[in-house]
Write a structure and sequence with these properties.
By secondary structure, the protein is an alpha/beta fold. The protein is built from eight helices and 14 strands. The strands form three sheets. A nine-stranded mixed beta sheet has the order 2-1-3-6-7-8-9-14-13, sandwiched between helices. The protein has a three-stranded antiparallel beta sheet with strand order 10-11-12, with no helix packed on it. Strand 8 and strand 9 form a beta hairpin. Helix 6 packs antiparallel against helix 7. The chain starts with a strand and ends with a strand.
């Protein structure tokens, strides 16, 4: 069990409309509560900070970020233990350009967000630092280079591929599991990803983990639906699964308007040492992790 101290800093978008459900704030509370529960009896070894924003460039937001950075620096300086840092940026992403929402109707690049938040931070000697980019898949699909550059600042950066990400499900089932086994339990990144590979998460979104510029992608890959990480379709519909034989999966299109042979095969991608890992097995949860 990891005995290090921990700083959790969550920066999340908060709409001004108080009548609407704030999904970002709710997912933030989930992670806050989980982390605090791991430090019952040693509350002095954890610092939990929340930075809600409506406009990240406003005076109030800038002042709040500065105060949080000062608190983190002071905590790291005064703590008698090694300190680990976990940062969550929880907002919307533009599906077309990959920019992140920093104000109503306004987006900017992850590079600009990182520069704005951490420009005068200095990053004291943390034993390990993790960044979770809790936003929709437009970021990783359109601006993967920004995510790679973020991994020059943080040891590991996590992003998600869903077109419409559910931050509450992702926080409950993925982020807390990574924290539990990778941060508190000291498992390796690949082992922690395998533990966090739950249908609740990966049936909803692919997961990306970037370290030192190298991006690993994890996808749900049940033989009956998406054996190679992508949903099998024929005539724009899900075909009927027939059977598996070796590395070949047989399907049959059941659409009335289908033309040509109805049965077809999908061949499984092989595992490649150091490049592609197949987790799970037939009849159980199955996932593919590959380097992109």
């Amino acid at each position: 069990m990891n005995s290090a101290a921990l700083v959790l800093w969550q920066i999340f978008y908060e709409p001004t409309d108080s009548t609407s459900f704030n999904v970002h704030g709710s997912s933030t509370s989930t992670i806050d509560g989980f982390v605090r529960s791991r430090f019952i009896g040693r509350e002095q070894d954890v610092l939990v900070l929340d930075s809600p924003f409506h406009h990240l460039g406003s005076r109030a937001a800038i002042k709040g970020l500065k105060i949080c950075k000062e608190q983190i620096m002071q905590f790291a300086k005064s703590c008698h233990l090694d300190v680990e840092l976990v940062v969550v940026i929880n907002t919307h992403a533009d599906p077309r350009g990959g920019g992140l929402l920093y104000a109503p109707g306004a987006v900017t690049t992850l590079d600009s967000i990182m520069q704005h938040i951490f420009c005068d931070f200095g990053f004291p000697s943390f034993r390990r630092s993790l960044l979770f980019l809790l936003c929709c898949g437009g970021l990783i699909k359109q601006a993967a280079s920004d995510v790679r550059r973020a991994s020059e600042t943080f040891d590991t950066v996590f992003a998600f591929g869903a077109q419409m990400l559910d931050p509450i499900t992702t926080s409950c089932h993925f982020i807390t599991t990574i924290l539990d086994f990778h941060v508190f339990g000291c498992d390796t990144l690949l082992c922690s990803l395998q533990r966090a590979a739950k249908p609740e998460v990966l049936s909803h979104t692919s997961v990306f983990a970037c370290r030192s510029g190298k991006i690993l992608r994890m996808r749900w890959a049940p033989l009956r639906r998406c054996p190679n990480g992508y949903e099998v379709r024929c005539c724009l519909q899900e075909p009927k699964y027939l059977h598996a034989s070796g590395n070949r999966i047989r399907f049959r299109c059941v659409q009335p308007g289908h033309t040509g042979p109805r049965c077809f095969s999908v061949y499984l991608l092989p595992a490649v040492e150091g490049k592609r890992w197949i987790l799970g097995a037939a009849g159980k949860d199955r996932y593919i992790v590959d380097e992109i």
